[in-house]
């Protein structure tokens, strides 16, 4: 393990993060609010620590970054940003304890959207902007942003890219990792601006349009209203957000190909077909269930069911209704979607559709082998054979993911949460969704969770966002040993 390169790289990421805190400070000044000083102080402290750390690590540093260094830099970089990102909440007085502040910051950076705030609308514009801006930074990734901006992190960029980008097989859009990171951020920014313009045209204020575009494209879910998108009873706004959540849940490689006019691979993409099929099937089932057991009209049934299905499967977490009062079948479908998640290479969390695809095809292959032992069957995605090591890694990922879920759920139950609340809290934070069920449902928040529980759920958010392996590998004996 090259400790100096880890410290130096993490310090540079922290320095960039500190500079980005000036954005909410500017928002505070723009709206004539007083908490700009909290962001300015936080920015100076964070940037100074980053610069000092980079300088101390620089002399004689060997900047070679292998797989272990990449995982360490990614995990420690995100953790450091969550800790320093909590400073403005504490200095501005929005939150009174480190557990609350770190929980809110980690929720923002990991695009979870779980909150401990009892009254969101009572917060200043700068605090609301900071929460949504954390979504936007974390959606495409702090480390990916740093790769795009910092020449010093080009060395070992592939290891950092692989450690952070969601999915079993992160695609390169360009030969160089830095160019790939820049292309990803370009597409990401284009989608954000496009949605913000549409939301502004459909009646949102410019501030609300920008913050909700941050939350949508990042599949985050922080809103500026206590009732989330329910506060805007506008079909046009709801449909726009639904469409952009669906786009954000797609593999960003497909967006890149669409912009290049290369539509053939998109039409033949197995994961996109499965993703679309799951969404349509879930909408159909929930709509039928609501029509049979609720007073919704056909239009409202389709509008709310499609919004909530897309919001949950993409792990965004916006709401237009209280789905916790829906019939049992509808809630069960939403709980299943919390584990499915969006596409690999998207800003969504959870297990991912591509892994579900591989799992299903692998299971079918094993079933055929049981019937026809001599038959040779290959697992394929998009017409290409999936290497056995990838299939094994997918199975191991799912086992680890479910293990973390079960252990965390038991721990939350031991802290006094009822079964449904414990299941909902862990599924929603590990899957980076936000609102769960019961005490942490769409009309509630996480303020009643004990402080120890908030630290545990913050860890679940990080594990879920960084795809389990990246974080848990740091706990393996011998990980920090020198090569």
Give the CA-based shape: globular
Low-pLDDT stretches are 151-161
Instruction: Give Rg in angstroms.
Output: 22 Å
User: How big a fraction of the residues is strand?
Assistant: under 5%
Order of helices and strands: HHHHHHHHHHHHHHHHHHEEHHHH
What percent of residues adopt helix (DSSP H or I)?
55-70%
What integer is the average pLDDT?
87
Based on DSSP secondary structure assignment, what is the total number of beta strands?
2
Strand order of the largest sheet: 1-2
How would a crystallographer describe the biggest sheet?
Answer: 2 strands, antiparallel
Number of helices: 22
Distance between the termini: 6 Å
Helix vs. strand class: mainly alpha
Describe the structure.
The chain has 483 residues and is mainly alpha-helical. 64% of the residues lie in helices and 1% in strands. The chain has 22 helices and two strands. A two-stranded antiparallel sheet has the order 1-2. Helix 2 runs antiparallel to helix 7 and helix 8 packs across helix 10.
Q: Quick recap of the structure?
A:
By secondary structure, the chain is mainly α. It is 64% helix and 1% strand.
Question: Which terms summarize this structure?
Answer:
single chain; 483 residues; mainly alpha; two-stranded antiparallel sheet; 22 helices; 64% helix
List the helices and strands and how they pair.
Layout: H1 3-20, H2 22-30, H3 36-57, H4 67-85, H5 87-91, H6 98-109, H7 125-140, H8 142-149, H9 157-164, H10 177-201, H11 206-217, H12 235-248, H13 252-259, H14 264-267, H15 270-293, H16 298-313, H17 328-340, H18 353-371, E1 380-381, E2 384-385, H19 388-414, H20 419-430, H21 451-465, H22 469-472
Antiparallel strand pairs: 1-2
